[in-house]
Amino acid sequence: GAGVSQSPSNKVTEKGKDVELRCDPISGHTALYWYRQSLGQGLEFLIYFQGNSAPDKSGLPSDRFSAERTGGSVSTLTIQRTQQEDSAVYLCASSLYGGSGLAGTDTQYFGPGTRLTVL
Amino acid sequence: AQRVTQPEKLLSVFKGAPVELKCNYSYSGSPELFWYVQYSRQRLQLLLRHISRESIKGFTADLNKGETSFHLKKPFAQEEDSAMYYCAPVPDTGRRALTFGSGTRLQVQP
Question: Is A114 on the interface with B (CB under 8 A)?
Answer without folding.
Answer: no
